[in-house]
Design goal:
21% helix; disordered N terminus; alpha+beta
């Protein structure tokens, strides 16, 4: 079984914890990802330079997905537009087979040769503010095969777009009350993962994969656990939407 690097906050264990947070779940949009708790969010309404962390708005994956051919994937073009004050700032993440300086794919622990994850992060900082609107554009040159924890499928060739907002804007990392007893080494890792970072996962339009198999990289018992978690998240999300209507 393949595992994702544990420092990424959307490990399955973190998602299990997130299901107990109704306030987070009822704000989930694309990817069924929980919004980062308000106590961690910035209180600063002005633009601040932060690194970026984003996932593509694929419809079926709830947690994770990888594409099987990195070269085919990077042959396309991925551009993020940050809209603020009537102006649009384009940020090209990759095109023509190469990442732009300061960008990379999130890593896998034991990837198969040639695979690439559907999440990306920058080491370069960009101005970000709570009121920003976001637009993502992805040009897919050829059909892209992929695999997730419970499914395999294809993202057909074409041009994909979506708009959205930040799922989290964080400045200095304030250790949550439930994490006060964690070892200092763990807190240091959390700070590194969160501080002065903008998370982009709240996409309003999702891109549908053509599912080719209901089997992914997880074993049957683990798939059952994930499916139960998905249903719980869907139920909680539905309750939250009804409450807001």
């Amino acid at each position: 079984m393949r595992k994702l690097r544990s420092c990424h906050r959307w490990e399955l264990a973190a998602c299990v914890l997130a299901t107990s947070m109704a306030v987070a779940l009822n704000q989930a949009q694309a990817l069924d990802m929980a919004k980062i708790p308000n106590e961690l969010q910035t209180k600063n309404s002005e633009p601040v330079k932060r690194t970026l962390s984003l996932k593509l708005p694929l419809s079926q994956p709830v947690f994770h997905w990888t594409f099987k051919s990195k070269s085919d994937f990077l042959a396309g073009k991925l551009v993020l537009h940050v809209l603020r004050g009537g102006k649009s700032t384009p940020i090209t993440i990759f095109e023509k087979g190469k990442f732009y300086d300061g960008w990379e794919a999130m890593e896998l622990r034991n990837p198969k040769a040639g695979e690439i994850y559907f999440g990306f992060q920058s080491s370069k900082k960009y101005l970000t503010a709570p009121g920003d609107r976001l637009r993502i554009e992805f040009l897919v040159i050829k059909d892209l095969e992929g695999i997730g924890p419970t499914k395999t499928g294809i993202l057909p060739a074409g041009t994909y777009t979506s708009t959205g907002s930040y799922s989290g804007l964080i400045d200095e990392y304030a250790v949550p009350e439930h994490a006060m007893d964690l070892p200092e080494e763990t807190v240091t890792k959390l700070r590194k993962a969160y501080e002065f970072k903008a998370f982009l996962e709240n996409w309003e339009k999702q891109w549908s994969l053509k599912i080719t198999s209901e089997e992914g990289w997880l074993e049957p018992a683990q798939r059952d656990t994930v499916e139960k978690l998905k249903k719980l998240m869907e139920q909680e999300g539905s309750k939250g939407r009804k409450h807001n209507e």
